[in-house]
Amino acid sequence: MATGRNHRPATSRSRGIPEATVARLPLYLRALTALSERSVPTVSSEELASAAGVNSAKLRKDFSYLGSYGTRGVGYDVEYLVYQISRELGLTQDWPVVIVGIGNLGAALANYGGFASRGFRVAALIDADPGLAGKPVAGIPVQHTDELEKIISDNGVSIGVIATPAGAAQQVCDRLVAAGITSILNFAPTVLSVPEGVDVRKVDLSIELQILAFHEQRKAGEELGAPPGRRPGEGPEADTAPPAAPPAVAVTKRPPESGTDGDLPAVMPA
Ligand SMILES: NC(=O)c1ccc[n+]([C@@H]2O[C@H](COP(=O)([O-])OP(=O)(O)OC[C@H]3O[C@@H](n4cnc5c(N)ncnc54)[C@H](O)[C@@H]3O)[C@@H](O)[C@H]2O)c1
């Protein structure tokens, strides 16, 4: 049974890289990968910052934690930075992932090709519905939850994705953790309790929509003549604000909100 919550300082457990920097690494990697695909050899901090949606001074500071300083007048070597950031995020190795709950969302995730291209291999699909057992989804036969522990052990899985109804999520989480899972991506709208050493990231698209609704409401108010307010991320504190949320399915071995559940980078300070 999982008990307690993690409370870690806001630095990565590897080499003391700040969690806010770790949260931006996937944004840099996405921009760099696009440059690499276009065979662009070098990039300036300003160009890369703009492509990643980050301020360039912050980018240079972030890269200094990686020991990457670029060359004056030339910029950063794109391929080398892709390698460095991938290595820092633990993406130079293959990560087997299990998805639990193969309904609408679980099936969509299983069919998402972006996992494999980013180093995450869907090792197994697990569901409690006996009617689903053996049925292929994205070419992988769904396995029953009775097999959960064996599947995780046989495949050496350390990352689990929960896409069950909220009411089942804690119980699924407890079984995953007891079976050896140490990182969980939770799509169920519930706060999970995990023991020390287990990282949880929560994805909730409805929270993102609620934030957009908030801004829409304010824009409507401004059009009606209300004084314009400052948005989060604007003004003097903007430089310390977290980046926009990475893609909903981005996973890192060293999650920015280690051990917490329900904190999206878009809405929580680093
Ligand atoms: N985070 C987001 O942005 C987001 C978006 C959509 C849905 N959701 C959430 O994702 C979850 C799944 O949504 P859905 O539309 O795919 O639901 P769904 O009902 O289509 O699928 C849920 C699946 O979980 C299985 N399941 C139930 N209990 C289980 C257990 N104990 N162990 C293993 N499998 C179990 C069911 O058999 C079913 O196949 C829900 O919690 C939903 O609220 C989140």
Give me a quick take on this structure.
Among the domains are: 19-88, Winged helix-like DNA-binding domain superfamily/Winged helix DNA-binding domain (Arc Repressor Mutant, subunit A); 95-205, 3-Layer(aba) Sandwich (Rossmann fold), CATH 3.40.50.720.
SSE inventory with pairings:
Blueprint: H1 19-37, E1 42-43, H2 45-52, H3 56-65, E2 76-77, H4 78-88, E3 95-100, H5 104-111, H6 114-117, E4 120-127, E5 136-137, E6 140-144, H7 148-155, E7 159-162, H8 166-178, E8 183-186, E9 199-202, H9 205-223
Parallel strand pairs: 3-4, 3-7, 4-6, 7-8, 8-9
Antiparallel strand pairs: 1-2, 5-6
The structure holds nicotinamide-adenine-dinucleotide.
Nicotinamide-adenine-dinucleotide (NAD) binds next to helix 5 and helix 8.
Main pleated-sheet profile: 7 strands, mixed
Give helix % range.
25-40%
The SSE string, one letter per element, is HEHHEHEHHEEEHEHEEH
- Share in β-strands: 5-15%
**Which hetero ligands occur in this complex?**
nicotinamide-adenine-dinucleotide
Q: How does CATH name the architecture of one domain? A: 3-Layer(aba) Sandwich
Shape summary: globular
Q: Report mean pLDDT, rounded to a whole number.
A: 81
Distance between the termini: 30 Å
Radius of gyration: 20 Å
Could you describe the 3D structure shown?
Among the domains are: 19-88, Arc Repressor Mutant, subunit A (Orthogonal Bundle), CATH 1.10.10.10; 95-205, Rossmann fold, CATH 3.40.50.720. Helices cover 37% and strands 14% of the residues. It has helices at residues 19-37, 45-52, 56-65, 78-88, 104-111, 114-117, 148-155, 166-178, 205-223, and strands spanning 42-43, 76-77, 95-100, 120-127, 136-137, 140-144, 159-162, 183-186, 199-202. Helix 1 (19-37) packs across helix 2 and helix 2 crosses helix 3 (56-65). It is globular and about 60 Å long. The two termini are 30 Å apart. It binds nicotinamide-adenine-dinucleotide. Nicotinamide-adenine-dinucleotide is lined by residues 100-106, 127-129, 145, 163-166, 168, 171-172, 187-189, 203-205. Nicotinamide-adenine-dinucleotide (NAD) binds at residues 100-106, 127-129, 145, 163-166, 168, 171-172, 187-189, 203-205.
